[in-house]
Amino acid sequence: ANAGLQVAKEAAIKQAESASRAAESLMTTPAVDESTGTADIKDLTEALEKAKKEAVTAKKDVASMKSQSESLAKEFDRLMEEKDQLERKVNIMGSGEKKDD
Fold this sequence. Notes:
The chain has two helices and no strands. The chain is elongated. The chain has 101 residues and is mainly alpha-helical. It has helices at residues 2-28, 41-98.
């Protein structure tokens, strides 16, 4: 039991130290450039524009895939209908030959 408590204590200490380092890192890394008062606005704007372009491209891709999917579904339905018609013809021909008079 004592060994388990010791392991839990060490894990808690390591977690606290890691959290402290992360907090210090966040506090020492300025989110805003002190000299200009901007938070890398240019970089953020570029990233936003890139994300917008990617979103537009993704929407076009989705529309294209939807259109292809609809075309494939129509073609599938057409082929299934053709298959059914051919099967009916084969059954009619087959039933005609099976008659023994």
